[in-house]
Amino acid sequence: MSAKISWSAAAQTRLQRAPAFMQAMVRSVTEKKAREAGLTHIDEDFLSGVRDVTMNAAERPEPIVPEPGHKAIVWTQAAQAWLEDIPEFTRDITRKIVEEIAAERGHLEVNCKLLDQVEALGDRAAGVDVEAMDWSPAAEVMLQERLSGTPALAVQFMSDLLRADAEDLARTMGSQHMTVAVLQQAWDKPLSPVPWSTKARLRLNDAPDFVRSGIKKAAERRARRESLAKISSDDLTRFRNESMMKAVKRLKVLGFTELTFEDVFETASARVKRLQNNPQAVQRFTEIRQHVENKEGGIGLLDHAMVAKMKKYLNPDDDKA
After folding, report:
1. Residue 61 scores a pLDDT above 50
2. If you write DSSP's letter for every residue of 51-81 in order, what string do you get?
3. Could you state, in order of their start, the residue ranges of all structural domains in the chain?
4. Helix axis angle, 180-188 to 137-146, nearest 10°
């Protein structure tokens, strides 16, 4: 049985500065490191040291190693320039997706023609594009109330998901405008359950807690749209690839190569209609920026721990069902 780990008052206070929904993860990571070091007591200095080590490790990208028996895939100069034209945090997973597809098609080189084909996956992420519905002010308020308990970091993700889900269901009922009555009817409409393969379920469980529910809903929505009998690990890989390419295309259209909070929000506000003159969007942006920039309570450790877990979800060792 593992020895009980005690915390100093200063370390406990520092832990409590993290948002409540994140504290359990910080505690778990820190106590694991303490046991590995043979310690039974955590003070503020140890907590700071764990944060620094974890942040440094998370910032080093893992090298991409070819599978045994496979030759390394070469990128042309133009293809490499394409990769460097997207934000740094998306490059590893984008490279992985491109090289997986190249290997599947028997290519030993990534060139611009292949990249055009891979980037086109983003066009399939949402199926046939449909124009967004008009929402009444009361329906917008109802949606925000539904999101009231959602962590700040996940609000925009869940908002987009719930909005798209509601609009899909409303269209099946013949509605073209979202009112409170239509929204309530869409939410009350029962959805048929979608089975998951064991491997797909394990991959879902590897996703960070605060987005797991959203990933599940999005995958099941795609499965229903495509009339899939079961969600397999291969389906999750396909959904991931298409969603990532859709994100890459959006980032390139908006002109982002290196992301800063100010640049992203200012550019998005100018080009995305629903962010314009939207006080709630400004408030969410401020909360997220303050959360990430505040290192006082070990937030850096926590953010990188979540990023590491998300990278594990996005980069499974074996994607085969």
Report:
1. no
2. HHHHHHHHHSPPP--PPTT-PPPEE-HHHHH
3. 6-59, 74-124
4. 40
Cβ neighbours of residue 41 closer than 8 Å, sequence gap 6 or more: 5, 6, 7, 8, 34
178 strand-pairing partners: 135
For the segment 97-101, the average pLDDT, to the nearest whole number, is 87
CATH of domain 74-124: 1.10.8.550
C-alpha distances (whole Å) from 160 to each of 91, 201, 268 are 24, 23, 15
Average pLDDT over residues 61-68: 47
The reply to whether 6-59 and 74-124 are identical in fold is yes
- Tell me the C-alpha distance between 86 and 147, whole Å: 30
Q: Which structure tokens are listed for 292?
A: 């990430």
**Per the structure block, which two tokens stand in for 75?**
């990128």
- What is the average per-residue pLDDT within 25-46? 80
Using one digit for the tens of pLDDT, what is the confidence trace for 255-286? 555 544 455 555 556 656 666 677 776 666 66
Kindly state the tokens that stand for 166. 């509601």
| C-beta contacts of 216-223 below 8 A and 24+ residues apart | 217/161, 217/165, 218/161, 218/243, 219/194, 220/191, 220/194, 221/164, 221/165, 221/168, 223/194
Structure tokens at 288: 């997220």
Pairing label, strands 41-42, 6-7: parallel
- pLDDT above 60 (res 132): yes
Question: Could you tell me the fold of the domain covering 6-59?
Answer: Helicase, Ruva Protein; domain 3 (1.10.8)
